[in-house]
Amino acid sequence: MAVKTYIAAITEALDLALERDENTLIFGEDVGQNGGVFRATDGLQAKHGEDRVFNTPLAESGIGGLAIGLSTQGFRPVMEIQFGTFVYEVFDSIAGQMSRTRYRFNNTRHNPIVIRTPYGIGTKTPEMHADSIEGLFAQIPGLRVVMPSNPADAKGLLLAAIENNDPVMYLENLHLYRSVKGEVPEGYYTTPLDQAVVAKEGSDISIIAYGGTVPLAIKAAEQLEKDGVSAEVLDLRTVSPLDIKSIGETVEKTGRVVVVQEAQRTAGIAANVMAEISERFVLSLKAPIGRVAGPDSIFPFAQAENDWAIKADDIVKKVKEVVDYD
Prior knowledge:
The chain is an alpha/beta fold. It has helices at 6-20, 44-48, 60-71, 91-97, 101-104, 134-138, 151-163, 176-179, 213-226, 244-254, 269-280, 305-308, 312-323; strands spanning 2-5, 24-28, 53-55, 76-80, 114-119, 144-146, 168-173, 181-184, 197-200, 205-209, 231-235, 238-240, 257-264, 290-294. Strand 2 (24-28), helix 2 and strand 3 form a beta-alpha-beta unit. The mean pLDDT is 96.
């Protein structure tokens, strides 16, 4: 297997999807000749043509409307929203239209649309570029929310999302784009949607994370090992719908849990995971569930980003609190 960066794995997945199905289209702001602001689509227009990889006007609402229309005509649109928080401009298309199509038409129509957009702290972007928006979209029925944490999953989950007949919000972590490398299987393959995976085995406590927080959780688990604490890391991969079975298995295995998210603390994925554990697996718990999350404040300007962001040490501290609970 070749070693690739997270973003190279995404580019490869898009290339393979275009090769596999002539009805797959990629479009968004500057995705054509420029290859997108992060070069995720670099070289794809030259290879597959302007009819299949093309630029749109700077109008996110138009991108969403175009995707809906194309999907009703047999195409599989992969629409790029340049930065995560720009989805506010296309929120109605996502939440009010494409996510409801299967229900609205009694399962006779569907919108096989992938909404690709980057998110996340760590690259000093301007305001409204790096917010974690998954909590907003996890509450929308009919919409999957997928957040890979490594190159192999970035490729496999994206190909699975493009194959899927329901709309998928595919969130790519900005910091991971070029900071993470890993072995990526060759050729076309898919990684199952809606399934979590154990990223690191452990026996004393479970750290449940997703997206950009998974490498932090693994780093924390490695630090904890030196102190005699065996931490298991569960990578959710899909945050809506949650893989309740895998969450239950890790809770029952260790009896102690810390849930990690980069987003603000209130009403996020971590809160949902904690609620599901409390309702379904409370008798397996040996201690209250811990949580590590961003503060309930506006995502900061670049100068304050490092102070705002959660760190591996924050996870270590919370894990020790939960492990030491009597």
